[in-house]
Design a protein that fits this description.
The chain has 209 residues and is of the alpha/beta class. It is 36% helix and 24% strand. The strands form two sheets. It has a seven-stranded mixed β-sheet, with helices on both faces. The protein binds glycinamide ribonucleotide.
């Protein structure tokens, strides 16, 4: 099983979905640790309660972004992490860090990329009059929310949706999509090569959301 670390900043519901999937010994990834940049992230308590080692690496404890990312890198190395999963980690990572982990670091974004990169994706999808919306798991590259796409799930935008209703529908889809996408990466069925994703060895209808 591929040793996987999760980076969070807050609630940790995607983290919880990954921990739940990895509780099955047949799942190809094991969650070896959770690192948060925020001491008060609710996800820390959830992970600890499930027996996953947690640690806080707070930005405020370091003089620069580079030093902060270097400390996270050190923590990941200590955990023996082979894969890094960003799950609501709300901080841009520095280019040297991203380049070191490129092809081994994935992120979930609450929109159908390349639409609605960045914050407030649900609000902007509603403002744009979208009738579908969704979520994306992608390999992380230095540009924010820009890396090659591993898997996506679409949900309908319903008449009368507000941000809360739409984000709740997308979040449910995230919790199904992320464990599926991490599985593909851990099994080597989704690989990043020359800046693109190569998918192999699975049936698209069954395995892509
Ligand atoms: C999720 O919706 C995730 O897709 C989003 O933050 C939320 C975190 O929730 N991530 C981003 O916006 C990253 N650009 P969670 O902590 O409950 O998983």
């Amino acid at each position: 099983r591929k040793r996987t670390a999760i980076l969070i900043s807050g609630r940790g519901s995607n983290m919880t979905a990954l921990i739940a999937a990895a509780a099955d010994p047949a799942y190809p990834a094991e969650i070896v640790g959770v690192i948060s940049d925020k001491a008060d992230a609710a996800g820390l308590g959830i992970a600890a309660a499930r027996g996953v080692p947690v640690q806080v690496v707070a930005r405020g404890d370091f003089a620069s972004k580079e030093a902060h990312d270097a400390a996270i890198d050190k923590a990941l190395t200590k955990l023996g992490a082979e894969i890094v999963a960003l799950a609501g980690y709300m901080r841009l990572l520095t280019t040297p860090f991203v380049e070191k982990w490129q092809g081994r670091m994935i992120n979930i974004h609450p929109a159908l990329l390349p639409l609605f990169k960045g914050l407030d994706s649900h609000k902007r999808a509603l403002e744009a009059g979208m009738r579908v919306h969704g979520c994306t798991v992608h390999f992380v590259t230095p540009e924010m929310d820009d890396g090659p796409i591993i898997a996506q799930a679409a949900v309908p935008v319903m008449l009368g949706d507000d941000e809360a209703a739409l984000s709740a529908r997308v979040l449910k889809a995230e919790h199904r999509l992320y464990p599926m996408a991490l599985r593909l990466v851990a099994e080597g069925k989704a690989r990043m090569e020359n800046g693109r994703v190569t998918l192999s060895g699975f049936v698209d209808n069954g395995d892509n959301a």
